Amino acid sequence: MNFFATAAKNTEPALRDELRELGFEGVRCDRGGVHFRGDWPEGWRCCLWSRIAMAVLAPLAEFEAPTPEALGEGVATVDWTAFLTPKHTLAARAVCRSSRLTHSGYVALRVKDAIVDQLRARCGARPSVNRDDPDVSVFVRLANDRATIALDLAGAPLHRRGYRLDGGPAPLKETLAATLLRMSGWDRRAPLADPLCGSGTIAIEAALWAAGVAPGRLRERFGFERWACHGEAEAARWRALRAEAEARAAAATEFEIVAGDRDSDALRSAEANARRAGVRVRFHRGSFETLPAFDRPGFIVTNPPYDRRLAVEGDFHERFAAFLNERAGDTVALLTGNPALSRTIRRKPALARTLFNGDLECRLLVYPPRH
Ligand SMILES: C[S@@+](CC[C@H](N)C(=O)[O-])C[C@H]1O[C@@H](n2cnc3c(N)ncnc32)[C@H](O)[C@@H]1O
């Protein structure tokens, strides 16, 4: 299989590095994600172990689709009975770029209809559609009139790890938090703090990574487990992959990760999320200035309020810049949607990258220590 793990814009190189580290074959960066090769269990392993991928797609067919008829015929070349029966539920979604068929909703509908028609012709009954929680999730990409039809292995997006029930007013996606940690250059051993932790996503993802815990460990089920072709042999192979992840989680090592916030409600939800994730994070209630310094060079990775979803106090930027000056021995990585903050810091970052927090355009700024 040639899989495609999808990544948020500008995070493709981070995902490529991660997949190489995880030992996947044929890892190659592309726009919107990273290709890799392997048998089906390699796709499942990616769902279980990638911290950065948003979805893992298995392309089943690729063909020219300038018209609705060509799209339907291309979809019909796949044997869909391998993946679903009339008892399964189904959903299709599409993205379209530079193509004659421009309406993604219509493209998804045509693809769904062609699958349903095949099932009805071969099995005498049709599967129903479930947009919220389908057994089989089909993804269609139409670019320059060329269609790629893929299955989404995970079903629900991979950022839904299962530990965060309460995200608070402005949570980061877990996949974005893991991306910031990797792009900050953190070695998983140096002490790390998020002094503006909100629901604790950055600190929890750091603790999971440092401990070598599979990010998908708490997910009850992935989409592929519900497919028709996931029989006893596949289930046994999948159980073995999960058992290996459990064994690694049990062997977790010591590390120092601190999460602070001045808001008691935020801290309570961060504590509950960390408990559910099964990680040890030290919590600190108070303004960022009161966070104790590390006894050796460490990392501060954080996502300050942007003044959009959360208001910023009048002198926040000046105080935060002063705090970072005091922590001159630490590497600092900030995801900020507010250019006023970087202007106030008045230091040249070693890395500045445009990233997206949902639809908010942000900058990841990484400041090296000053010796
Ligand atoms: C953008 S949110 C962080 C969201 C977080 N990354 C998450 O995934 O939930 C910023 C956080 O900074 C906190 N905050 C604002 N001013 C603060 C201060 N002076 N000291 C400590 N925390 C502060 C807010 O309470 C809020 O939880």
Major sheet:
8 strands, mixed
- State the helix count: 10
Specify Rg, calculated over alpha carbons: 22 Å
Structural class: alpha/beta
> What's the mean pLDDT score?
94
> Could you state the order of secondary-structure elements as H and E?
EHEEHEHEHEEEHEHHEHEEHEHEE
CATH architecture descriptor name of the largest domain: 3-Layer(aba) Sandwich
Structural description of this entry:
A hairpin with a 2-residue loop joins β14 and β15. It is built from ten helices and 15 strands. The chain has 371 residues and is of the alpha/beta class. The chain folds into two domains: 151 residues, VC0802-like (2-Layer Sandwich); 155 residues, Rossmann fold. The protein has an eight-stranded mixed beta sheet. Strands 11-10-9-12-13-15-14 form a seven-stranded mixed beta sheet, sandwiched between helices. The site of S-adenosylmethionine has 19 residues, from α6.
Furnish the topology, listing elements before pairings.
Layout: E1 2-6, H1 12-21, E2 25-30, E3 33-37, H2 40-49, E4 55-64, H3 68-76, E5 89-97, H4 104-123, E6 128-129, E7 136-143, E8 146-152, H5 174-183, E9 192-194, H6 201-210, H7 232-250, E10 257-261, H8 264-277, E11 282-285, E12 299-302, H9 316-326, E13 331-336, H10 339-345, E14 351-357, E15 360-367
Parallel strand pairs: 5-6, 5-7, 9-10, 9-12, 10-11, 12-13
Antiparallel strand pairs: 1-3, 1-4, 2-3, 4-8, 7-8, 13-15, 14-15
S-adenosylmethionine binds next to helix 6.
